[in-house]
Amino acid sequence: MSTQEESGAAPAADTHSPDAVVVGAGTAGCYAAATIARADYEVVIVERKSEDEAGHIACGDALKGASAFPEAIPREQIEPAFTNTGVDHGRFEIPQEDTVLEIPVPGELAVIDRWEYGKRIIEGAQDAGAEIHYNTVVQDVTQADDNKGTVTGVEATQNGDPQTYEAEVVIDAAGSLSVLQDKVDFSNSTFDTNVDYSHFCSAYREIVTVEEPVPWDDALVFKPTERAAGYLWYFPRTDTEINAGLGFQMTEEPMQLVDDLKRDLEARPEFENAEVDDKLGAALPTRRPYDSAVHPGYVAIGDAAGHVNPTTGGGIAGAAYAGKYAAEAIVEGIEDGDLSEKALWEYNERVMDHFGARYAALDVYNILSTAIDVDDLMSLLAVMPGEKLAEALYSGSTSIGPKLALESLYKSYGHWGTILNLYQTKRRADDLLELYEAYPDHPAALEHWQERRDDLMDAVYETTGAEPKY
Question: Which of 215, 205, 269, 203 shows the shortest CA–CA distance to 240?
Answer without folding.
Answer: 215
